[in-house]
Design goal:
The protein is an alpha/beta fold. It has a domain of 159 residues: Orthogonal Bundle (Isoleucyl-tRNA Synthetase, Domain 1). The protein has 18 helices and 16 strands. The strands form four sheets. It has a six-stranded parallel sheet, with helices on both faces. A hairpin with a 2-residue loop joins strand 10 and strand 11. The longest helix is centred in the last third of the chain and has 31 residues. The radius of gyration is 26 Å and the shape is elongated. The chain binds 5'-O-[(L-methionyl)-sulphamoyl]adenosine.
């Protein structure tokens, strides 16, 4: 069994989570569940980023202490993750002692290695992005990343020798073409590094809400330096070396494209400075947009996740998020697109296949799954297609192409629907043909395979489906070997339940 360590970014606690945040967690959770299906020992980490000027400003606005703001927001994140079945193994908060002590020690170590030095910073700062910019980097005097106001900073502080790592990074990207995904983003990062890296200011003097630099109470550690280290502090760095050795390096860091540079440039440089190995992959996904703009709380164009979960169900929302966006590209969040997918893919294609099959087993075999006998060519073709689809899904999941993996599974679902039309079980029943047994067994076996395959994407609905087809074992314990064709046991009884995805009426909305 090999370990597989997956992370999401740590979410800022200045506000409640929205669809954009949910997306990163859903993607990471789907991969975590898929790797478990493959037999890996998965460690899936998420959490919250609780320090910095942005949080402090929001707390002041609300007239509460930053820690109180964080404590309250964490509840919203945890609740949403629970309702979306996010199966994280650890939730780290940057205000936890286990993290703070690693950040302080890491800082001191880099000072003693000569990679952190004292200097004077003069430049601009964007609070929403928690980023430093030079005058020339600004666009129309605004933040080049989010187009918002920046403010001037001039202060004594500590710098990290980022400039030292440009060539090493370029060599690393070159030798590890899979490190930055997707490849379009990879070239962006390479060009950025080729332009030359500047040393990074890693302390703030006027900020009080941050991890203090040990023995320099006037200074606190820059929030990104602090937050990035969560990936090692949660894995036991400087605390449980055995565990850390087992878990590190991370196998995939999932991040949004806005924070790729922090993960593909600054983070590896910090690790190199500390003599640690680099993560295997950083995957940058696109943004969820509304009316052509990134969804964000500050723009006021976000969808309320609680409302969406309540109306469509958590798994339907997961399906939409995973199916609608291609890896690395932006997606447009629209209710009408979601409702179309719900009715077409979930209620019709999958829901009907399950319903029709179970109803026929009830009607023709008193609910008991028949045995297959002398399969004909048309029956054998379903088996061949099932084998092909498994291979394809595996290839696509290796590439982290969740959307095409779902499309491939749906091809098989529709293949099975077509098989019903072609085989015409109602005619076989009339003719008293023994082929009826084979057709229904083949359909039940197809459903068993589909349930296991969709489990990583829609865990609750997959479990419901698995139970409806009469299976008694735990779907979450299934492994790739359970996807072998032929394991559906004749003689078990189906349990017809409520429709998995009752059709929804379209919202009355303008879009
Ligand atoms: N705190 C930092 C990350 C530190 S990781 C060591 C941060 N937090 S965030 O809350 O602003 O964003 C967290 C994640 O949500 C990022 O990956 C970001 O890209 C993602 N999203 C926020 N809005 C988004 C969309 N509208 N669409 C998709 N994802 C976006 O950055």
């Amino acid at each position: 069994m090999s370990k597989f360590y997956i992370t999401t970014p740590l979410y800022y606690v200045n506000d409640k989570p929205h669809i954009g945040h949910a997306y990163t967690c859903v993607v990471a959770d789907t991969l975590a569940r898929y790797r478990k299906l493959k037999g890996d020992d998965v460690f899936f980490l998420t959490g919250t980023d609780e320090h910095g000027e942005k949080i402090e400003a929001e707390a002041n606005k609300r007239n509460v202490k930053p820690q109180e703001l964080a404590d309250g927001m964490v509840v919203h994140f945890k609740n949403l993750w629970q309702s979306l079945s996010i199966s994280y193994d650890d939730f780290i908060r940057t205000t936890e002692e286990r993290h703070i002590k690693v950040v302080q020690k890491f800082f001191q170590n880099l000072v003693s290695f000569g990679d952190i030095y004292k200097g004077k910073y003069s430049g601009w700062y964007c609070v929403p992005c928690e980023s430093f910019w030079t005058k020339t980097q600004l666009k129309d005097d605004k933040c080049p990343e989010c187009n918002r106001e920046v403010h001037k900073l001039e202060e004594e502080g500590y710098f990290f020798k980022l400039s030292k790592y440009g060539d090493v990074l370029l060599q690393y990207y070159n030798e590890h073409p899979d490190f930055i995904n997707p490849s379009s983003r990879r070239s962006e990062v390479i060009n950025f590094v080729k332009e030359g890296l500047k040393d990074l200011c890693i302390t703030r003097s006027k900020l009080s809400w941050g991890i203090p630099v040990a023995e320099e109470p006037g200074l606190s550690i820059y929030v990104w330096f602090d937050a990035l280290l969560n990936y090692i502090s949660a894995a036991g760095y400087l605390d449980d070396e055995k565990r850390f050795k087992y878990l590190w390096p991370a196998d995939v860091h999932f991040v949004g494209k806005d924070i790729l540079k922090f993960h593909a440039v600054i983070w590896p440089s910090l690790l190199l400075a500390a003599g640690l190995s680099l993560p295997r992959k950083v995957f940058a996904h696109g943004w969820w947009m509304a009316e052509g703009r990134k969804m964000s709380k500050s723009l006021g164009n976000v969808m309320d996740t609680d409302v969406l979960v309540k109306k469509y169900g958590a798994d339907a929302l997961r399906y939409f998020l995973l199916r609608e966006i291609s890896p690395g590209l932006d997606g447009n969040f629209s209710i009408s697109a979601m409702e179309k997918r719900f009715n077409a893919d979930l209620a019709n294609d999958l829901g009907n296949l399950l319903n029709r099959t179970i109803s026929m087993v009830e009607q023709y075999f008193q609910g008991v799954v028949p045995d297959s006998n002398q399969p004909r060519e048309m029956d054998d073709q379903v088996v061949e297609d099932a084998v092909k689809i498994l291979q394809r899904v595996n290839e696509l999941m290796e590439k982290l192409d969740f959307s095409l993996a779902l499309e491939a599974i749906w091809q098989f679902i529709n293949r099975a629907n077509k098989y019903i039309e072609d085989a015409q079980p109602w005619r076989l029943k009339k003719e008293n043909s023994p082929a009826l047994n084979t057709v229904l067994w083949t359909l039940m076996e197809s459903l068993r395979i589909v349930a296991i395959l969709i489990f990583p994407f829609m865990p609750c609905k997959a479990a419901e489906m698995y139970s409806q087809i009469g299976m008694d074992d735990k779907i979450e314990e299934k492994r790739l070997s359970d996807l072998k064709w032929g394991l559906m046991k004749p003689g078990i009884s189906v349990r017809k339940g409520n429709p998995l995805f009752p059709r929804i009426e379209f919202y009355n909305h303008k879009e």
